[in-house]
Amino acid sequence: MKLNIAVLPGDGIGPEVTAQAVKVLKAIAMEFNHVFTFNYALVGASAIDKHGTALPQETIDICTKADAVLFGAIGKTAFDLDPDAKIRPEQGLLGIRKALGLHTNIRPIIAYDDLLSKSSLKVRQIKDTNILIYRELTGGIYFGDRSLSEDGNTASDVCTYHRFEIERIAHQAFKAAQSRKRKLALVDKANVLESSRLWRRVVLEIAPQYPDVKVNYLYIDNAAMELIIRPRQFDVILTENMFGDILSEEASVIVGSIGLLASASLGDEHAMFEPIHGAYTKAANKGIANPIASILSAAMLLDHFGLDEEAALVREGVDKSLKLHITTPDLNNKYDNISTTKVGDFIEDFINNPDETNLN
Amino acid sequence: MKLNIAVLPGDGIGPEVTAQAVKVLKAIAMEFNHVFTFNYALVGASAIDKHGTALPQETIDICTKADAVLFGAIGKTAFDLDPDAKIRPEQGLLGIRKALGLHTNIRPIIAYDDLLSKSSLKVRQIKDTNILIYRELTGGIYFGDRSLSEDGNTASDVCTYHRFEIERIAHQAFKAAQSRKRKLALVDKANVLESSRLWRRVVLEIAPQYPDVKVNYLYIDNAAMELIIRPRQFDVILTENMFGDILSEEASVIVGSIGLLASASLGDEHAMFEPIHGAYTKAANKGIANPIASILSAAMLLDHFGLDEEAALVREGVDKSLKLHITTPDLNNKYDNISTTKVGDFIEDFINNPDETNLN
Ligand SMILES: CC(C)[C@H](C(=O)O)[C@@H](O)C(=O)O
Ligand SMILES: CC(C)[C@H](C(=O)O)[C@@H](O)C(=O)O
Question: Is there an atom of ligand 1 within 6 Å of A275 CB?
């Protein structure tokens, strides 16, 4: 298969982890006789430095022409944000989501047996947890009107949802549930928000088309608690943009490190793959960033094109690295000194020689 | 002291747990020679049944005349919500918050030594956690304009904040931090929301007035993760309405049961005290509801009127009940059969005879 992949490494640890994902994709191309070409483009703070905008037109063009986008990370730490800045790195990420129409964000939350002890939660709480979060990604309060009054004393953000926005992701989520444990939980705040009541109505209407799927309804506050105390109750979680942002980052505590969480953002015509973690600038260029989230995002890219065997091989490599503790300091004893690159190298070697790398 | 207390038991387990808090307040009045009078009023589903509205004018009047309000719980389960209902139990709670101007909601999150093993989190994660959440309660998306288009296909909610709304709660939170560990964390989504950027600006402006307080800034998604993996980093958390709702219910996992979390809602002229948990209708009238959240809310009521010794005695009674495992099934072996009333009786007895109840 020929794939033209746009690579947007972004800021902070973005470039380091993305480099490992590219390395892994190159190994896959070699092993399976695919032709993957990689076109790099700037986004976020690095684009602002060079072009004065977080999302240059050139970057949009490269992404639009590509079969898929591999995204790194953007942004400053929350502590360093300047609320008065007119140009912000996040505009790069939000802009590309909108420009490519990436309305459906899929975030798998899987408790790996070899990492159970790394979680803040008790092992018996999390064992066998396997959740797929469907987060709506181009609507809601992220993309509604915003305003700041002239005197600077009043600020507003509007959360709007249209029926079609809810329908398209809801059908995807129901279908995913059908191929899994046939459970779907809608997370909303329908006891307060009009937009949440629309979500509720649409899901209640659609549900009968998927009679084999058991639907549950939770308020976001309650879901934030249930996710921790009874994570195994969840199969597919469907939710709006902001709630999905919160729940998926919270869910990283189940997996043991946010450095493990991958995601796919799908539109009708485009697809982007990115780790859930941010730019984590403090950790940049130290070789300590975990590349697994980016590598697993590459695996989701392979899934997307039906390259199942290829994706499975990448995941096997990841599993093996976890089993053998070839992991960065977020998951390992920091004195082991296993770097970002070393993890990438290990998985690359595994892909080249699945049998030989088996040190077990 | 003479106190006129409005009691709004509400729905589900509300009446059962509130009855225990009233019992405890009566014991305190007896022991310390106070005159507490209790005036009951309807709210939520029970008010809808009788008056066709979740917040009858009579209830507002009783609350307005009272020195303080003791609130139980309202609402249906998320599962049972009818998105088309024009009248909903939650309007009672939101309405009373607005009518009394209760803009500052304070939610303590304390990991009790005797309950560490009940948490879903590892004991070493949570030991010594003591957080005070300041949640803005009468602004934001809870009280902004809402709309549903005529064709039912588009729904909107507006999140608006005014500078003065942020300032008044921020000063309270900074003052609280000064009397604690002198740390304040603002939780927002300033990388996306205009309203969050206003929060950020106001807190950056105010912070220099409290030079002894160390301020941190976190995005809500990140905070939802940090709360679980590093809860001890937090002292006072300051946040807007919706984020406070989510974070405080999530934080119940630290404490081991949401049945333990109390809150105070303060305005310029009125004050209300209520458990964080909801009506939990499935558990109603079974004697299994934990009354501690309501009893600790009564302790916060006593705090509010400077009745420090009285509040301390209530908390001692609660501590003792936890130490001796006189607790409802959420915290105990369910075969122990310790009912809601039994827990209330134990704490009442303790207040009457602090020395004799010491079975230790
Ligand atoms: C960087 C930020 C704008 C973004 C979001 O909130 O969507 C991030 O947190 C994410 O989850 O991808
Ligand atoms: C019942 C509901 C409207 C309420 C809220 O969201 O504020 C509750 O969850 C709370 O936290 O007090």
Answer: no
